[in-house]
Amino acid sequence: MFDFRNEFALPYIEASKKNSLGNEPPDCYIPAYRQKMEQETQKGLTKYLNEKNLSASILQLFLGGTETTSTTIYWTVLYLLHHPEVQQKAFKEIEAHVGLDRLPTLAEKPQLCYLKAVIRESQRMAAVSALIPRIATKSFELKGYTIPKDTIILVNTVTSLQDAQTWGDPENFRPERFLSADGNLLSPEEFIPFGMGKRTCLAENLGKMELFLFLSAMIQHFRLEPEDPEELPPLKGQIQMVHVPKPYKIKFVPRLQQ
């Protein structure tokens, strides 16, 4: 069985130790963690920041980020099958700002606002991480109920992501809800696919980057079509590790054949 900590994480941690941390802002996760760990050690606060938890958090970045990102892509592709006009509009935006001769990069991210709105609407509709677990650090009262310390609380993000009062028509796939009148991206506070506060998803920035790069490249090079044009796969999900769509088949048609 593959030992993630010893065979993957520790070699990178040991390699990082060969470089001095200094006072400059670190350029990646491991030295950033080590820098914070050293600061806490100097203060005598070493309860949680240690190498064991560092390797554990690296594992969470890979497992949590991979599962949620891939599932979000499955959902986005499924929504694009049901809304070919949205797919075409996203393609035209990529064609205008990137072209077709090279892959999109993060440098184009500010210009591809419609694509980012499509991704956000997919995240809102799918609610991949519908239930986010938290533990109460102290007892408190909530609407007449006493929540004891150490209670496991499941935060239901669907109540925010699909609230009719907030979104108006939450049952409809409409990326434009995330765009202002002048086409800039909007970030409503109710949009919480990664959670919120200091315990927000550790891999949020990594996930956003992966979703943008993967989906922009897919839409740029392929027209996504259902296996059977007369019968679209259902927009139904099932709870596994996360909220996943039911298996479906798709055609990837190279755009050079158009």
TrEMBL record:
GO molecular function terms here? heme binding; iron ion binding; oxidoreductase activity, acting on paired donors, with incorporation or reduction of molecular oxygen, reduced flavin or flavoprotein as one donor, and incorporation of one atom of oxygen
What residues bind heme, as annotated? Answer: C201
Q: What is one GO cellular-component annotation here?
A: cytoplasm
Signal sequence, start to end: none
- What keywords would UniProt list here? Heme, Iron, Metal-binding, Monooxygenase, Oxidoreductase
Q: What cofactor is this protein dependent on?
A: heme
One of the GO biological process terms: xenobiotic metabolic process
Q: Which domain of life is it from?
A: Eukaryota
SUPFAM superfamilies found in the cross-reference section? Cytochrome P450 (SSF48264)
- One Pfam family assigned to this protein is p450
Q: Which family does it belong to?
A: Belongs to the cytochrome P450 family.
Q: What is this protein called?
A: Cytochrome P450
